[in-house]
Amino acid sequence: MSTVGDRIGEAREAAGLSKAEFARRLGLSRAAISKMENDPQRGVNGQTLVKIEKTTGYLGTWIATGKGHKKRGDIPAPQPEYKDSAFGQLTPDEQTLAIKMVLASMGEKDKAEILRFLISHSGQDN
């Protein structure tokens, strides 16, 4: 299993950058880059992940976790059809739970606005 450092090194090398140039672009020292790539216990802060993503095109979430898509270009384009969307792939119970979770995080004013929108658009084919 790869470490954060392994993934940082992979992203840097894929971008064709030396450690010195990578460090310059990130505003870090070459020694800091070496430590990030070689210390399996070392973490990377969010600001550095954002800089790495901008510099290399590799997603910060992949670098941090090793899960999901590696690069922006690997993410499939959104599907225009509801049934093809991630939400559309959920079971009805999962969709209900997802909606409840979103609504639970919203204020009453936002909930009322959504309700007004839904009522005004009910029965319309959009």
Short description:
57% of the residues lie in helices and 0% in strands. It is mostly helical and 126 residues long. The protein is elongated and about 60 Å long.
Detailed description of the structure:
The protein is mainly alpha-helical and about 130 residues long. It has 2 domains: about 5-75, 434 Repressor (Amino-terminal Domain); about 80-120, no CATH class. It is built from 7 helices and no strands. It has helices at about 5-15, 20-25, 30-40, 45-55, 60-65, 90-105, 110-120. The model has no long low-confidence stretch (mean pLDDT about 85).
Strand content: under 5%
Work out the helicity level.
Answer: 55-70%
Q: For the terminal residues, how far apart are their CA atoms?
A: 47 Å
Mean pLDDT: 83
Strand tally is 0
CATH topology of the largest domain: 434 Repressor (Amino-terminal Domain)
The SSE order reads: HHHHHHH
Round the Cα radius of gyration to an integer and report it: 21 Å
- Give the uncertain stretches in residue-range form: none
The largest sheet is: none
**C-alpha geometry:** elongated
Structural class: mainly alpha
Question: How many helices in DSSP terms?
Answer: 7
The CATH superfamily of the largest domain is lambda repressor-like DNA-binding domains
CATH architecture descriptor name of the largest domain = Orthogonal Bundle
CATH class of the largest domain, named: Mainly Alpha
Number of domains: 2
What distinguishing features does this structure have?
single chain; 126 residues; mainly alpha; 434 Repressor (Amino-terminal Domain); 2 domains
